[in-house]
Amino acid sequence: MGAVAGSRRISFSRGAQAVLCVASVAFSLSSAVAAEIVCSPTLVQKSDWGYSKRTPDRCEGEYFHVAANPGYSSVLHVVSLVARFGAVDPQHDQTILVQWKGAPPSDVVTLTVTSLRPEHYYRMDANVSSKASAYEWPTMFARHETLRPFELALLAQTSRGVLLPVTVGVPKDPSAPPKPFLVIKTTKPLSDLQYTLRRIDARRPAKAGPEPKPVPVTGEFITIPLSLPSAGDYNFSATAHVKNGPLVALPLTFHYVE
C-alpha cells in the first residue's frame, strides 16, 4: 500500500526506538493483573529482611540455608537462563525490567531471582499474569544485599514447567545477536559435568543424539554458553559425577524466541 498523499515518513533513532520499546512494555505491565503467589513455607523468615510475602504477587528476602535443604532432593538445579543481559545495576537502578517471549496465553509465568554469591541465601519469586511478558523487579532488597550485576541469577518458568530465556534490562544494541547462557547450581562437589542440547523438531524423526560436551567444574555455580541457531523448543540434559558418589542428571526443556 502506498503512502497517503501529503504524509511524511517518520524515522526514529536507535535510542528513540529503545525508549518506545520500554514505554510499550510499561503499558502492557500496567494493563495486566498480577497472579496471587504463595511463598514457599520452608523459606519464610520472620524478620524485616527475611523471605516473606511483600506484595500479592511477590515473595522476597533472605533465608537460612538449613531451611532450603529439605527442598533439595537432587544435586543439580538450573538457577538462571538468560538470552540477553543489558547494562543494569541493582545498586543504582530502582527497578530492573525483565522480559521474556513465547509464554502460552493461558500460562502464569513465575520469575525467580537468586544470588550467585557463594553461601548467600537471597530469593525473589514473582507470579506474572499470562497477559504480560515482562516484570519490573523492585531492587530494594537487592541493594540491601549489595548484589552486583554478575551475581544475579534469573529464571522464568511457565505454569507447565517450560523455561523461557529472559532479557535483563534494555540491551544497548537491540540489533546485536543474543548471547544466551544457562547457570547450574550443584549442592555437592563434582568431579566432572557434560551436557547435550537438541532442538525439538516434530516434523523430523529423532536421530542419534549429539555428542555430550564437557564443561569445566569451577565451583558451586557452573555457567554454560548456549548455541541456539533458531527459535523453537530445546531439550537440555546435563550429567555429572559426584565426587566419591553416583552419576546425577538434570533434564529440562525451554522455549526460545529470537
List keywords for this structure.
258 residues, mainly beta, six-stranded antiparallel β-sheet, six-stranded mixed β-sheet, 3 helices, 16 strands, 10% helix, globular, disordered N terminus
Terminal CA distance: 28 Å
Widest beta sheet: strand line-up: 1-2-6-5-8-9
- The number of helical segments is 3
Instruction: Indicate the structural class.
Output: mainly beta
Q: Report the uncertain regions.
A: 1-32, 67-72
Strand segment count: 16
- Estimated radius of gyration: 20 Å
Morphology call: globular
**Fraction of residues in helix:** 10-25%
Q: Biggest sheet: strands, sense, closure?
A: 6 strands, antiparallel
Q: Helix and strand string, N-terminal first?
A: HEEHEEEEEHEEEEEEEEE
Give the mean pLDDT: 83
Task: Kindly estimate the percentage of residues that lie in beta strands according to DSSP.
Answer: 35-45%
Summarize the helices and strands and which ones pair or pack:
Elements (H helix, E strand, L loop, with lengths): L13 H18 L20 E4 L2 E5 L2 H4 L7 E10 L9 E6 L8 E7 L6 E7 L5 E5 L1 H5 L7 E7 L4 E2 L1 E3 L12 E6 L3 E11 L12 E2 L6 E5 L6 E11 L4 E10 L2
Parallel strand pairs: 3-10
Antiparallel strand pairs: 1-2, 2-6, 3-11, 4-7, 4-10, 5-6, 5-8, 8-9, 11-14, 12-13, 12-15, 15-16
Give a nutshell description of this structure.
The chain has helices at 14-31, 65-68, 140-144; strands spanning 52-55, 58-62, 76-85, 95-100, 109-115, 122-128, 134-138, 152-158, 163-164, 166-168, 181-186, 190-200, 213-214, 221-225, 232-242, 247-256. By secondary structure, the protein is mainly beta.
